[in-house]
Amino acid sequence: MTGPITAGVDGTDESLAALAWAAREAVRRDAALRVVHVWEFQPHAAPDVADRASQESWVREGVAGAVRTVAERHPALEVTTDVLEGPPADTLLEAARDAGMLVLGSRGHGPVVGFLLGSVGQQAITEAACPVVSVRSGDKASDEVAGHEVVVGQQGGPEDSAAALRFAFETAAARGASVRAVRAWTLPPVFAYSPGSLRLLDEAGGLEPFERQALGAVLAPWRERFPDVPVVEHVEMGSAAEVLLSVSGRAQLLVVGRRAHRTAIGARIGSVAHGMLHHADCPVAVVPPR
Questions:
Q1: Quick check: pTM over 0.90?
Q2: Where does the record place the UspA domain (predicted)?
Q3: Which of 172, 194, 198, 208 has its CA 20 to 30 A from that of 282?
Q4: Other beta carbons less than 10 A from residue 1's beta carbon
């Protein structure tokens, strides 16, 4: 990972939890921490902060207080702060252009699934050039959960999940944790079989052995690159979202790749990443392709 770890803060409990998570991760990785707050002038605010100067002063005081708490906990950590004015999502994305990762707070579970992250978080996860980690105030943020695992979803061939696997292995190495690589599979429709695929399945001994061989082949170069990181190969029949959620209870961090695409109602990040962000019991990292 290159570039600082950037934490977006807005004064909420969720963003403060994200800041605390980002600070701990920066210490582990010996990286710098950049704290960013984006604000817009609100002309109809309370009378005591009704003018621009008063609002900016109030914002800066709040950010300074959060940063002081981080500095007291991690005195050796290099921390910089930026208070920026502008459209929140676009300004945050521009600020994180050179970041190694962007860490944001999420409101957590709720009845309206599409609005849990907020519009800024959704746009950041969809468009950021770096991995985006979503942290809730109630997440297992102590990083001392049972299992000591970084769980990562893998699908397709070696290049399809390369960025997510890289992030997972780097994170596990920094934490002294293991990686659980999860590959979910389902029965394909009969018409999807070709003579070549049938031959490969026959040589592998069936569908599940074929999937296990595929996962092992994808992981081989990462095992070689990170020889000190223990790896668990997890192959299970079912939807990717269901299988990942079933093992997220013992994860310190859940890592998924981003499959962003645009629709008539806006950008989407793919069903698996969407499901993990809204239902996983741990922080979730969404990693863009290379």
A1: no
A2: 1-136, 152-288
A3: 208
A4: 17
57/55 Cα distance (integer angstroms):
5
Sheet holding 101-106: strands in order across? 79-85, 33-39, 5-8, 101-106, 132-136, 284-287, 251-257, 149-153, 178-185, 231-237
Q: What is the mean pLDDT of the chain?
A: 83
Q: Give 118-172 pLDDT, tens digit per residue.
A: 678 888 899 999 999 999 876 555 555 555 899 999 988 888 899 999 999 999 9
Contact in structure between 221 and 144 (CB atoms under 8 Å): no
The SS3 call for residue 81 is strand
Q: Checking phi first, is residue 108 left (phi over 0); if not, alpha (psi -120 to 50) or beta? A: left
- Please, what sign has the CA dihedral across residues 13, 15, 19, 22? positive
